[in-house]
Amino acid sequence: MSVVDGGWGRAARTLAFLGACVAVAALCSPIGRSGAPVGFAFMPLSLVVLAAVGHRVLGERAVLVAVGVFALLLPWFALGAYKGQDVRLLGGGETCGFGREQLAIAAAKFGGLSALIGGGIGLMLPARASTPVAPRMRAAGATIAVLVVTGSIVVMTGLATLQWLSRPSAKQYTTSLSHHARIGPRPSLVTTPTRDSLYGAREVLYSDEAIEVTRACHADGLSCTGYLDLRDGFGAREAFDVEVSSDLTLKRDAERGLWSVTVTYELWRANEMGFLAGQRNGPLTIRSRHVRGAIGPPSATVALALAACGLLGATAYWLIQSRRRLKKALSGSEASLRPDGWLELDGAGAPIHVEGHDVPPGPVIYLATEQSADYRGRATASPEMVLSGTKSEWLAAHQATARILVPVALVAALYLAAPLFAAARLGMVF
Questions:
Q1: 289-343 pLDDT, tens per residue?
Q2: How many domains are contained in the chain?
Q3: Is residue 171 a part of any domain in this protein?
Q4: CA triplet 251, 252, 256: central angle to 5 degrees?
């Protein structure tokens, strides 16, 4: 009965832990969709806390459950990071925004990626004890994965930092567009409508080799419709409503074919609109992805990327040092340390006296290849040359820690670096 109770109790604790992971994920899901930087800092912290608590209560499998839940949510947070950094620069419409069709396509892509991640985790779990070679392959694969991911994020973080220092921010970019022309108020010359329209013929307000601004005014002589020809082969396009008393200010980014048109009305506030050469429709909502290579990543993105570099660097350092200690331990000889401080090597003759009492008696690993002797001629060894435990225990401890540390560190670092990858996709890094 105790076995049954223990099994049911463990199952209940596992379900409760899974529920806690799902609850945290549900609470953080709106933050992830919004792309707020706090979500990409909170999720790794939540993962570390849940993994530590789960490992203490349920063991290693709880850590894998937490990592699996958070890994399945990672693509959706990456989508949120993309949307959060694809900020509006000019315009207020949705012509070039992140529309429903694009959102559906992105959801399908990231949903498929979630399925692949979940399937990969599911394939890894039963393969844990499949063959004797599997632990070695996983250990080598974990080290390679950490080093590759660390190298990639470090390089991208370095490039992002340089772009953050050298390029303007999104706000600075819109205010630094070069001034092209200012068109002051002009009275309408039209007093009667044409045969086919209530509006008169178009009047040229400004024209040069880069742009032509025209308007067609109503018969009342007050309200007009403005037209823009960006010299891109599409001709004049209906652009905005304007009054005869309005001021027009033209700014541009000649390299990217971006135009900013600010209409200052007599009674209303100024209206700033964006236009792109090669886009027939307008005015458009100009976003970060339309000016690739012009703006740098946000400071929060760089800070989170630096945190990811620190986390992965610490993990890689631990892996390298742990493998060095393991290699050193495996190169030694197994022995047994008696309570009186004498070391008995397996298959050896005379015992060796261990100076000091830093190592507890029991199975040990003797590292020294050459022996020294005291004034009595007895073979002696320093405590630094004796490691507590057996080779199999050292190997199992290294593998157990790596199985917990590496997945948690990788998923946590990917959350921290998700805004960095989104910034690179938007042209803010390269």
A1: 888 889 999 999 999 999 999 999 998 898 889 888 888 888 888 888 888 778 7
A2: 3
A3: no
A4: 165
